[in-house]
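Standup notes
- DV: blocked on the single-chain target, sequence here:
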Amino acid sequence: MARAVSSEAQAHKGAAPMLKQVSTERQAEFAQAVLNRAFALFGAGQIDSADVLLETVEQQPTVRQRVMHLRGVIALCRGEDEDALDFLEEAIGLEPSDADAHANIGALLLKSEQYPQALAAYAAALSLRPDHAAARFGVARALAGSDLPELAIDGFRDVLIADPEQVDAAAELALLLKDHGRREEAVALLDQMRARHPEHEALARLAREMTDAADGVGAGARAGEVSLNPGGLADPVMASALRMTATPRVASATLCDALFMEGCRHHRAGKIERSKRFFERVLEIDPAHISTLCNLGALALALGDVARAQILAQSAVTLAPELAPARVALADAMLAGGKVEQAQAHYRKALELAPGNDAVHAQYAMALQAIGDLDDAMVHFLAATRISQQQSPRFYEALGRTCAARGNSQGAEISLKHALALDPRCVGAHCALGEVYLGAGRHGDAEAAFRAALVLDANDLQARRGVERTAHARRFEADGAP
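- DV (later): unblocked, structure below
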């Protein structure tokens, strides 16, 4: 089929060969101008003209990544899925941190009902940009398509919390709720949305279906009929790209890895229970998923369930005895259970397996600091930072406490301030910094540090005592005591 291409696009195409005769700087300026115009044409719905313009500058290195991305979206609009995938994969290869490109690959995979792969793509987008609305919506759809209804329901609720006016998400959530025996919740949700959007015929039709007891068609079969707008992509695409549900797919390694990524994302966001549900679902599918065994063990440890943490970590070590992270997970669990010698043996084995792994050195250093072996702890703190200075707030707090205990107040202050720069809400680091200042006679700084901790946790005992001790030290100093 012939495509409608504007005379403007044809003119740019004709001018492109002449670019070779001008400077590199001028070529870059021209390429950027063409790219900007292509985006404008795309936004106006003139996708064929936009594509012609993009083709004229696709070899320019300064704009190639964005050109490949937009050409991928255009190919997706046209239904040219193989070309779309090629373009988008090249865009990601040129710029792996492009969250929109990952989200658009997710949309392409969702369209072809490759739900585990779509989930992985959307999870990658959210890892790069946690507030990515299209990726958040895509995760919920991919979970529904993967026959994981409870996780999908949570996902759609996340979408509606972020954007209560997302009508598509509400409609799909209502269908999912009804299809899993929660009709009353579905009807209540639709009533709320209809009150805010009385003009939406699709919502009204869906509400009527919800109350039709004689209706024998499953919600999943109707999903395509109630889509209210294209949505779901980081750029506009055709409504045909949307498929909300499908028959259950065979569990795959890709699905497990995608669920694991989502579990890790929720863990980083502090959503422990959500993270736990994702990890547990992975183990239902694949009980031998090593990374999940380790991470779920770490969650159990954080929740105080030391026995379960040891069981999970031991399972990981049994399955992969030569994997350093599994050894570290077991060592952490052993240490929490008071089995210090066994813990140290596993830490040392992890170092033997991965001597250049900064995470292993870091974890061993923090363990040694916790048991009071400060000299050996410092050896591994330094080893970790030589490999990579990108460590956690907890690491720098432990390093600061170690420096303080060894009499290095300057090193302690630097490390603790770095911990707080990474996480200003770290109560322990505020208190430790207060102790350093108090020991140095910097009473004003000490009081400020302890009070900062109390702002975060008014019941923190160390911070309360720190304020009292600082006040006492000031009075003692004011009395002129030697």
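- Follow-up: Confidence is low (pLDDT under 50) at residues 213-251.
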